[in-house]
Design brief:
Helix content of chain C: 25-40%
Radius of gyration of chain A: 22 Å
CATH architecture of chain C: 2-Layer Sandwich
Number of helices of chain A: 12
Chains: A alpha/beta (292), B alpha/beta (287), C alpha/beta (119)
Radius of gyration of chain C: 12 Å
Number of strands of chain C: 5
CATH superfamily of chain C: Dinitrogenase iron-molybdenum cofactor biosynthesis domain
Largest sheet of chain C: 5 strands, mixed
Oligomer: heterotrimer
Largest interface: A-B, 60 and 62 residues
Structural class of chain C: alpha/beta
Strand order of the largest sheet of chain A: 3-6-7-2-8-1-9-10-11
Order of helices and strands of chain C: EEEHHEHEH
Number of domains of chain A: 2
CATH architecture of the largest domain in chain A: 3-Layer(aba) Sandwich
CATH class of the largest domain in chain A: Alpha Beta
Distance between the termini of chain C: 32 Å
Strand order of the largest sheet of chain C: 3-2-1-4-5
Shape of chain A: elongated
Number of domains of chain C: 1
CATH class of chain C: Alpha Beta
Strand content of chain A: 25-35%
CATH topology of the largest domain in chain A: Rossmann fold
Order of helices and strands of chain A: EHEHEHEEHEEHEHEHEHEHHHH
Number of helices of chain C: 4
Distance between the termini of chain A: 16 Å
Chain lengths: 292, 287, 119
């Protein structure tokens, strides 16, 4: 078993990323690690029901000023691009919620008057769902910045396993943070105008990363044929199609994995994995040669 | 003038479809599509753009190869892993903090403001709309969202239009927070699934922090009536209430495929439910 | 006494700009109505975030005693308080109108911000 990193993304929300990511991880069993990177609204745990063993708070380093050492020179405020530290009146004020944790003020204070405290970003929880290793991040509600927490979740990637990353919806920086460094990206979409439009945006964002991708069409029989057309035209492999079934929707509503609601999909997901593995290897032919 | 912001927590619950329906039903309104990462409202309202501007967001570091001495200090001090061993800046990781600019002894690094997207004011078949798109991978959707909302509110004030309808983004992070600050009313669209319930609770928590009156709509409500009831309880516990339930209806997708909203297309069960919801919302929104 | 008023223009008869952080201009005047400086705040308007904090620094650095504006968010308010600047909110009309109101003691000093934090 070759370790690899597979991200599951979408563009449009609600197309079935979590449905796919969790069932894929489940069929791979002990060889898999599932990392929920949708830290704003993590849902993998709802379907996987992991036994969580560890919970770790994650913080962004924010400046703490020693007023005794501070000369009020104002250099910190000049350096800071985010207005999170400023000399005003005869005080230094810090605005921790604005801070990106770049460390600039701390590094460049001529009096070494600044140390680092923390702003709570959220928490990372780890454990196991049956044999599947499980990691998720949960952003503190009210915290604006998700990328630093996503980075912290990705630090937990187990390099000896098949890591499956459930990405957030959209195509902006939290998604890019999640999928960067992956060996393959599965885009889950639905055959509707919104699904197609957002898929195009997401593919546009990902194309330049040079990571192979494929599409899964969920609720494949509900809309029109334009997503098919787009994939053909762009040469993007269509990895699987999952028709809409009331049974699947109701099972999902109750918190069931797709492969539990409809066990005939176990084979679909095993085949999906083989297809992904082959597509990854197809992009790295030198690996095949080393093996022989 | 009142501003109604429609959010969801979980993606895919039907924010945009519902916003389009309200746009059809409300007599006089300005639309604002604040899901700037993946804007879809235009698909149903067919805008004609008459004003377009660039959006410049964060600055990114750039290294002048001729001045660079390859000392690697910039790479070592960058906390975001944005500078690689070849001393190339990855704009997707760069947060524009400028530390590299300061630590470079050759003054080889500068911060350059880039083009991050566009925003537009358009006329649509349902009235004026402000919308935007962020270039893929870009950040600062919060700033672009604020810009879209400010433009929409300015337009409403200038034209004496009493309502701004905002289609929000999924999640509870930066673009959603930027959609909520100073809003008059919030509508949370959810679905009766355990995931929907979980995400709705977080969205509700965010809204409560802003102390804005909020209602909830349960879409595809017949998938699980038991979870729908639990959602009602959560709403009540949070000084909110479920203002309506919309049954799962394939007509909604069929309308979308035709680039129309559900209430335009005859008298389906979803259409009737949505009209009912609008009738309950309108007196407060338009007073 | 130095007074700062957020303004759409540079003169005593300019309209008050209700925003603080992203005000077009910050007019610095004395209690007699002499305009000492009209600070162009447009660069701050385009700031990512923290426009209120930067505007507060502009005001504090000039040793202003009273700031008059429409709305002031929590970060700006905290910064102004730290600098000992008194804040008057909810004002409109021209710069001259608010100066007259201030001189008549027809205003109250705010004890808290009257706007949400925002981009």
């Amino acid at each position: 078993m070759t370790p690899m990193i597979i991200s599951v993304a979408s563009g449009k929300g609600g197309t079935g990323k979590t449905t796919v990511a969790t069932s894929l991880a489940w069929v791979l069993g002990s060889t898999a690690q599932l990392l929920d990177c949708d830290v704003e609204e993590p849902n993998c745990h709802v379907l996987m029901k992991p036994v969580l063993q560890e919970s770790q708070p994650v913080a962004v380093p924010v400046p703490v000023v020693d007023a005794n050492k501070c000369s009020l020179c104002g250099k910190c405020g000049e350096i800071c691009r985010f207005s999170s530290i400023v000399v005003i009146g005869n005080q230094v004020l810090t605005f921790p919620e604005m801070c990106h944790g770049c460390g600039g003020c701390t590094l460049l204070c001529p009096e070494n008057a600044i140390t680092e405290g923390g702003r709570e970003l959220g928490v990372i929880e780890t454990g196991f769902a049956g044999p599947v290793e499980f990691v998720h991040g949960r952003l503190r509600v009210g915290e604006a910045m998700s990328p630093p927490l996503i980075r912290a979740v990705k630090h937990r990637i187990n390099r000896h396993k098949i890591a499956i990353l459930d990405a957030p919806p959209g195509a902006s920086c939290p998604v890019i943070q999640t999928i960067t460094g992956s060996d393959f990206i599965v885009m889950v979409t639905e055959p509707t105008p919104f699904g197609l439009h957002d898929l195009k945006i997401a593919v546009g964002a990902i194309e330049d990363l040079g990571i192979p991708l494929g599409v899964i069409l969920n609720r494949s029989d509900i809309g029109d044929g334009e997503v098919h057309g787009f994939c053909s035209q762009k040469g993007i492999p269509l990895l699987a199609e999952i028709p809409h079934e009331r049974r699947i929707a109701e099972g999902y509503a109750r918190g069931n994995l797709l492969v539990d609601s409809t066990p005939q999909y176990v084979d679909t997901f095993l085949e999906l994995f083989v297809t992904i593995r082959d597509l990854i290897n197809g992009n790295r032919p030198h690996l095949e040669e080393t093996k022989s | 003038m009142k501003e109604l912001v429609i959010i969801s927590g979980k993606g895919g619950t039907g924010k945009t479809s519902l916003t389009a329906c309200f746009a059809f039903l409300a007599p006089n309104k300005v639309l604002a599509d604040c899901d700037v990462d993946a804007a879809d409202l235009h698909i149903l309202v067919h805008p004609e753009i008459h004003h377009e501007e660039d959006f410049r967001g964060a600055a990114k570091a750039a290294i002048d190869r001729e001045k660079c001495s390859q000392c690697q200090k910039c790479r070592e001090t960058c906390r975001f892993g944005a500078i690689n061993a070849e001393l190339v800046v990855n704009p997707l990781s760069c947060e524009g903090c400028g530390v590299c600019v300061h630590v470079c002894s050759e003054q080889a690094v500068s911060l350059e403001e880039g083009l991050n997207g566009h925003w537009c004011i358009s006329d649509t078949r349902f009235g004026p709309m402000v919308h935007a798109s962020l270039f893929p991978g870009a950040e600062n959707s919060g700033k672009l969202v604020a810009l879209v909302r400010n433009q929409a509110r300015d337009l409403a004030r200038k034209k004496e239009i009493p309502l701004v309808l905002v289609d929000g983004a999924p999640g509870v992070g930066c673009p959603v927070i930027s959609s909520l600050t100073g809003a008059d009313r919030v509508l949370i669209v959810t679905e009766p699934t355990l995931s929907g319930l979980h995400d709705m609770e977080r969205a509700m928590q965010l809204v409560r922090g802003f102390r804005i009156p909020a209602w909830v709509v349960i879409n595809k409500c017949d998938i699980n009536p038991e979870v729908a009831d639990r959602i009602e309880q959560v709403a009540l516990r949070n000084e909110s209430k479920v203002i309506g339930r919309i049954p799962y209806d394939p007509e909604v997708i069929q309308s979308m495929v035709q680039r129309r909203c559900a209430v335009e297309n005859g008298d389906s069960s979803a259409s009737r439910a949505i009209r009912g919801i609008w009738e309950r919302l309108a007196p407060d929104l338009l007073s | 006494m130095k007074i700062a008023v957020t303004s759409m223009g540079t003169e005593i008869h300019s309209q008050v700009d209700p925003r603080f952080g992203r005000a077009r201009y910050i007019v610095i005047l004395d209690e007699n109505g002499t305009v000492l400086e009209a600070v162009d705040n447009s660069r701050n308007s385009n700031a990512l975030k923290g426009a209120g904090i930067q505007a507060a620094k502009v005001v504090a650095d000039r040793k202003v005693e009273v700031l008059v504006t429409g709305h002031c968010g929590p970060n700006a308010f905290r910064a102004l308080q730290a600098a000992g600047v008194k804040v008057v909110v909810e004002q409109s009309g021209t710069v001259k109108d608010v100066l007259d109101r201030l001189n008549r003691n027809g205003v109250a000093f705010a004890d808290q911000p009257n706007a949400e934090a925002h981009w």
